[in-house]
Amino acid sequence: MRHRTLTFSASDGLDLFAQCWVPERPSSAVLALVHGIGEHSGRYSSLLRALLPTAYAVWGFDQRGHGRSPGQRGHIRTWSEYRSDLACFLDTIVAHHPNTPIFLFGYSMGAMVVFDYAMRPPSPSSQRPHGLIVVGAPLDPETKGRGLLLTLARLLSRIWPRLPVPLGVPAEAISHDPTVIEALKADPLTHGQATVRWATEFLDTVAWVNAHPETLTIPLLMLHGGKDPLCHVEGVQSWFDRLPLADKTLHIYPGSRHEVHNDTDRAQMEEDLLAWLAQHL
């Protein structure tokens, strides 16, 4: 396995950090990681262990305002920045892996970035992924007790968009595994905040994706924890049931929280992922 780090230019000229793990033999496909809010592309070691022996290359990038990429932590001016950044990232992958199938893997916020890109691509010439894999998709995010805060966020987004607010997500919400929890708490590349503009852009994107399932035309694998306290599994099931896509699969893991790939059901999740990938090559 060869590991490499690099940067690529976003459409607005921002240099974003990326890294890749490539097997020694020719890659049969590429898994393009799109991480969640407050984390970075280096938190997917369990997936690497599962994928690299099967000759899949894995690429990831730190989204703007995250990890080793520049920008205010957890801030965007508009959600379209994420969409354009992903387009540039995929162009970078294609330059290194021409004529190789690319599967998008989005976790949490990254799932919404993946959905948004696939459902309303930046341009007709944008790279079309071979398939989508989403984990912990926030189609029905937990907002209990935050009604006033969200109302204030919409107001402040207009007059003070860069105002940072804590995400309020306990590390214990992502996994039952104490090793995963402690590693997250100790990781200097993670952060626990986002701006009020990010919050309004995120919620608007969630609403749009919920309202337009018919626009998704790419094979889809959804993986979700039955004990996810951040994104209600009932909302995921409801959206999946309304999705008029023939090639769609949903696996719910009863014992897992938000990060299925880092929880007690990870072995079964990896088995399901590898089987689905093999069926779609």
Write the layout of secondary structure elements.
Layout: E1 2-9, E2 15-22, E3 29-34, H1 45-51, E4 56-61, H2 80-96, E5 102-107, H3 109-119, E6 131-135, H4 147-159, E7 164-166, H5 178-186, E8 193-195, H6 196-211, E9 220-225, H7 233-242, E10 248-253, H8 266-279
Parallel strand pairs: 3-4, 3-5, 5-6, 6-9, 9-10
Antiparallel strand pairs: 1-2, 2-4, 7-8
Protein described:
This protein is α/β, with parallel strands linked by helices and 281 residues long. It has a single domain, classed as Alpha/Beta hydrolase fold, catalytic domain (Rossmann fold, 3-Layer(aba) Sandwich). An eight-stranded mixed β-sheet has the order 1-2-4-3-5-6-9-10, sandwiched between helices. A two-stranded antiparallel ribbon has the order 7-8.
Short précis:
With 281 residues, this protein is an alpha/beta fold. The protein contains eight helices and ten strands. The protein has a single domain (2-279), classed as Rossmann fold, CATH 3.40.50.
List the keywords.
281 residues; alpha/beta; eight-stranded mixed β-sheet; two-stranded antiparallel sheet
Q: Show unreliable segments.
A: none
- Profile the largest sheet: 8 strands, mixed
Strand order in the sheet with the most strands:
1-2-4-3-5-6-9-10
Class per helix and strand makeup: alpha/beta
Q: How many runs of DSSP E, i.e. beta strands?
A: 10
- In round numbers, the mean pLDDT is 94
% residues in beta strands:
15-25%
Order of helices and strands: EEEHEHEHEHEHEHEHEH
What is the CATH topology? Rossmann fold
Can you identify the CATH class?
A: Alpha Beta
CATH superfamily: Alpha/Beta hydrolase fold, catalytic domain
CATH architecture: 3-Layer(aba) Sandwich
Helix content: 25-40%
